[in-house]
Design goal:
There is one protein chain. This protein is mainly beta. A four-stranded antiparallel sheet has the order 1-2-5-4, with no helix packed on it. The chain has a three-stranded antiparallel sheet with strand order 3-6-7, with no helix packed on it. It starts with a helix and ends with a strand.
Length: 173
């Protein structure tokens, strides 16, 4: 009898891990002075500043309403940015801030994510940065209509030029 009880408790405890929610998100950029790489112009010898990133796409995924599915109420914003041609920088050399600027309507999915991030995926010169938040059931969601900006940050905490972009989404459902 004790063995059955122990097996039952073990199965219950191990199955609770499947109910937890840990969505894939961008890791936090950890500035490291020792990892800084100076890029200089070969003709002038001057240091080349961080690049002005180009926002390639913005994807908003809203929470759903299925019962019994872990993370179904999580929303996500995926911002893909491109390092301009000719820039010597690579994504592993800097972090990226996704900063709220002007919230016109609804909620702010970037709240709580005001830290520099690393990409969740890099393809060539394009990196994808993802933040997740508890969006809730569709009947409780608010629309999203805001301006945000993307800013690069070096290992020496130098900021690159900012670029504005829009995040818009209606409620899901």
């Amino acid at each position: 009898m004790r063995l059955r009880y122990l097996i039952f408790i073990s199965l219950m405890l191990s199955s609770f891990a499947t109910y937890s929610c840990s969505p894939l998100q961008s890791r936090v950029f950890q500035p490291n002075e020792d990892a800084h790489k100076w890029h200089t112009n070969k003709k002038t010898g001057f240091v080349i500043g961080l690049p002005k990133l180009e926002v390639v796409s913005v994807e908003v995924n809203r929470g759903g309403d299925s019962d019994g599915v872990s993370c179904i109420d999580a929303g996500s914003v995926i911002v893909k940015v491109k390092i301009p041609e000719g820039s010597p920088y690579k994504f592993e050399e800097f972090g990226v801030y996704l900063k709220s600027k002007n919230i016109r309507n609804g909620e702010n999915p970037l709240v709580g994510h005001q830290v520099p991030l690393m990409p969740v995926e890099v393809k060539g010169r394009v990196g994808a940065f993802m933040v997740a938040w508890v969006d809730g059931h569709p009947k409780y969601q608010k629309p999203i209509d805001m301006t945000a900006e993307v800013i690069s940050i070096s290992n020496l905490l130098q900021l690159g030029p900012s670029v504005e972009f829009q995040i818009k989404s209606e409620k899901n459902g």
